Amino acid sequence: MRVAVDSPTPARPNLAEQVYARLKAELNDFQLVPGDRFSEAELGLRLGVSRTPVREALFRLRNEGFLDVEAKAGWSVRPIDFGRLEQLYDLRIILELAAVAKLCAHTGTPPPELESLKAIWLVPAAERLTDGREVGQLDEAFHATLVRAAGNAEMARVHWDVTERIRIIRHLDFTRGHRIEATYTEHGKILRAVMQRKVDQAQMLLRSHVEQSKAEVRKITLATLHEARERSAAGR
């Protein structure tokens, strides 16, 4: 008689994914900043998990360029490679300009994604959000939606990869109150130009908008990151 045997529950990969997501969020929220050091044992104790899922998550983050590891010194948050970030911003601009050109060349009914963006960004000033974290998330979604609406899945995939790699810089951009208001204004202008199929105007506005974020890369110092961590801790 054949006895059915249940397959083991794949708990470890799920747990490693949870640890990975938690640590990546801490990097993006400045709870971990360049130069911070820690061990696998320390993280496991803090997160309440064994060293195996912690190690899997850490090596994944190392492969993505966020962490370094040394045999005796343990793990550390890698210094920000500003030159690489600027290159990623250049790639982002190319992708978004191409997406805007495709959207402006579109005939017929505008893609439904644009309608969803109107409901968020073309609102009265009194209805605008003021929380930097929320606006930062919506900013990511705005640009990702523009690219996705252009209808090229591979372009959207590459763009999202770039988005994930520059997220820490974008978060810093929204720790400044005036950038929140400026983002609403600039997104509104970009969206109206796209809806009116004014390709030159839309691309000009988009390039200027992204270049402003790119400029933040040049202003960031380690002190800025530590200050951001202090503000983040105070807000929790």
Automatic annotation (TrEMBL):
Biological classification of the source: Bacteria, Pseudomonadati, Pseudomonadota, Betaproteobacteria, Burkholderiales
Keyword set, alphabetical order: DNA-binding, Transcription, Transcription regulation
CDD domains: WHTH_GntR
Signal peptide: none
UniProt GO molecular function: DNA binding
Protein name: DNA-binding GntR family transcriptional regulator
Organism: Roseateles asaccharophilus
Record field: transmembrane: none
Domain HTH gntR-type as annotated: residue spans: 13-80
